Amino acid sequence: MSDLAxxxxxxxxxxxxxxxxxxxxxxxxxxxxxxxxxxxLAAENFNxxxxxxxxxxxxxxxxxxxxxxxxxxxxxxxxxxxxxxxxIEEDWTAKLKNQILIMENPMAN
Length: 109
Prior knowledge:
This protein is mainly alpha-helical and 109 residues long. Helix content is 83%, strand content 0%. It has a domain at 1-73.
């Protein structure tokens, strides 16, 4: 078992060395313009961009949540005194009662 662990460690070290050499050689192949650009980008502070994105996403989320909450509240407070609403409710309950009575007494029809 120790040989397998040793082989795994040896393979990991070899892959790390190959990857590190590749990445270092990749940076060495940069032109001067690319190096100036990468140095400039590294020097810039992107904290303001992050804050801006966080504020925009937060405002958007707040608006969406407010719309959803208001919609749910309005659906919950449906106008139960509305005559049309009462008609539908009474119509459905009457039909349901009729169907139950028909199912209980199939011979009466």
